[in-house]
């Protein structure tokens, strides 16, 4: 489902990209997944699992 995206140093030195699940700043390599038609960025596939398990149900409940 997801893909790894390598960021060039020029990008990761100036742009801080936090993981959409744990909030950890991802410097070099992002795990990119499409969720609900939008792009989500994670530090690892494990965080994608956590996101789907814990964050998505909570968001659905907020609607
Ligand atoms: Zn993470």
What is the CA-atom radius of gyration, in angstroms?
Answer: 12 Å
Q: Could you list the spans in which at least 5 consecutive residues all have pLDDT below 50?
A: none
| Residue-averaged pLDDT | 87
Which molecules other than protein and nucleic acid are bound? zinc ion
Tell me how many strands there are: 5
Helical coverage, percent range = 25-40%
The proportion of residues in beta strands is 25-35%
Major sheet strand order: 1-4-5
* Shape descriptor: elongated
Structural class: alpha+beta
List the domain count as a whole number. Answer: 1
Please summarize the sheet with the most strands.
3 strands, antiparallel
Number of helices: 2
Core attributes:
single chain, 63 residues, alpha+beta, three-stranded antiparallel sheet, two-stranded antiparallel sheet, 5 strands, binds zinc ion
């Amino acid at each position: 489902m997801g893909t790894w995206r390598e960021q060039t140093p020029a990008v990761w030195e100036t742009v801080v990209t936090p993981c959409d699940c744990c909030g950890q700043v991802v410097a070099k390599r992002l795990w990119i997944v499409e969720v609900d038609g939008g792009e989500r960025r994670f530090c690892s596939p494990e965080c994608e699992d956590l996101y789907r398990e814990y964050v998505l149900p909570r968001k659905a409940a907020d609607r």
